[in-house]
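Minimal example, chain plus zinc ion.
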Amino acid sequence: MPDLATIGAALSSLKTATDIVKFLRESDLSLERAELKLKLADLLSSLADAKIELVEVQETLLEKDKRISELEDAFQKKDSLVRQRDAYYTADENGKPIGVPYCLRCWENDHKQRQLVHDSKEYRIRVCTSCGHQYEGRLAGNIEPPENSQPA
Ligand SMILES: [Zn+2]
């Protein structure tokens, strides 16, 4: 996982490149052709390193943006999910849990809203598709709307 050290490496590669250019500028034109070629090869290599390191930094920034928007999303939904027994649910207009269950562990640990599904082998077990945590079905089942409720 690239981090601040990658930025440091990129800066260091750019400094090397700059130093080489300075050296070439300050040296009188008496440099041997072979030496000049060597310096230019070093220069290219430093610039290529810097480019790779900056691409890593760019990827890290994109990942962080994604995580920030997930957290913002979770923060907005913070009060809209309510716990009942072993799962979280969307709240209806009265603040009562309703609908499909969401993983307690994912919500409480990572603030991620992950739906629970039935286990393929054991129908009484509910499984989180994200973390794989298993729940007792009767403690984390669907909550149907009350019988007498009419659609608006
Ligand atoms: Zn989970």
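The mean pLDDT is 87. Residues 103, 105-106, 114, 128, 130-131, 133 surround zinc ion (CB under 6 Å).
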